[in-house]
């Protein structure tokens, strides 16, 4: 029987119909690379819990600027200490980058989590103060798919999607940038979202990938005959891998982006 298993701890409206010029010059791949960070918390002298987070530019209802960090709920739940480390990156004058992890409070003095979750969904969001370069890199809320996006853009099984993360806590270089992967949608049907809140993606998942963004850009291939969308979009967030018994099936479980939207909406209703 198929079972989903959480990786072990090492670890709005539809996207806007952007003008063609904006769609061409706004590269979501590079944008999301810049907006994706490693999250970790030491669990021993040489061990740590690792996950992935990404930043969304989600202003408050009154227009006040706000940056929201998105990750998998189980990533934060597996971090018992009040602070985690966020792997910020700093551009240097010579063109190089410096990896600069800094603490971020995730629980208050009473031990109460500072993040917000959506019941029944492995999604966690929290408003965060970030370095200015990361505030500029945060992805606009409108680029998150909603409940109608997959139907409107004819997304289906076999379409390629891209993923960013830190498998086994590894980054693509010493600067701490995430590793880019590609896989194919392995589920059918994908809608309605209310009936199918997650979908499967055919690629190998490792501890540390949890919480990473899953997205489409024109660099990803589509099924023959499918209409290519005019703009990129974030399809969801990687939650976990599929395991049957002790066998890893090289499939990832993706939470649909609509539920990231709903989790962020809960922030707006918080006292």
| Largest sheet descriptor | 8 strands, mixed
DSSP strand tally? 15
Give the strand content.
35-45%
Total count of helical runs of at least 4 residues: 6
Rg, Cα atoms, Å? 18 Å
Mean pLDDT equals 89
Summarize the structure.
This protein has helices spanning 20-25, 28-35, 73-77, 132-137, 149-152, 257-269, and strands spanning 3-5, 36-42, 48-57, 67-71, 83-91, 97-105, 116-117, 124-128, 139-140, 160-165, 179-185, 198-202, 213-216, 233-244, 247-256.
Give a verbal description of the structure:
By secondary structure, the protein is of the alpha+beta class. The protein has a single domain, classed as Beta Barrel (Thrombin, subunit H). It contains six helices and 15 strands. It has helices at 20-25, 28-35, 73-77, 132-137, 149-152, 257-269, and strands at 3-5, 36-42, 48-57, 67-71, 83-91, 97-105, 116-117, 124-128, 139-140, 160-165, 179-185, 198-202, 213-216, 233-244, 247-256. The chain is globular, with a radius of gyration of 18 Å. Mean pLDDT is 89; it is low at 1-25.
């Amino acid at each position: 029987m198929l079972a989903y298993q959480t990786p072990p701890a090492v670890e709005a409206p539809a996207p806007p119909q952007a003008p063609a010029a904006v769609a061409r010059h706004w590269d979501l791949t590079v944008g999301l690379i810049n907006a994706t960070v490693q999250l970790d918390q030491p669990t021993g002298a040489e061990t740590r819990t690792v996950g992935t987070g990404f930043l969304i530019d989600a202003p408050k209802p009154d227009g006040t600027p706000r940056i929201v960090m998105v990750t998998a709920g189980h990533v934060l739940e597996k971090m018992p200490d009040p602070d985690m480390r966020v792997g910020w990156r700093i551009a240097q004058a010579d063109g190089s980058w410096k990896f600069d992890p800094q603490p971020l409070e995730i629980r208050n003095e009473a031990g109460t989590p500072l993040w917000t979750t959506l019941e029944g969904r492995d999604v966690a969001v929290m408003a965060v103060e970030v370095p200015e370069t990361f505030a500029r890199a945060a992805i606009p809320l409108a680029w998150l798919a909603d409940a109608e996006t997959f139907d409107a853009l004819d997304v289906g099984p076999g379409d390629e999607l891209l993923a960013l993360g830190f498998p086994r806590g590894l980054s693509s270089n010493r600067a701490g940038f995430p590793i880019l992967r590609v896989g194919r949608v392995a589920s059918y049907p994908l809608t309605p979202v209310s009936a199918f809140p997650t979908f499967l993606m055919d690629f190998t998942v490792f501890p540390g990938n949890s919480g990473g963004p899953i997205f489409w850009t024109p660099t990803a291939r589509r099924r023959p005959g499918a209409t290519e969308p005019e703009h990129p979009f974030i399809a969801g967030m990687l939650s976990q891998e599929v395991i049957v018994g002790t066998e890893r099936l090289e499939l990832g479980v993706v939470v649909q982006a609509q539920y990231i939207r709903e989790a962020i909406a809960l922030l707006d209703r918080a006292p």
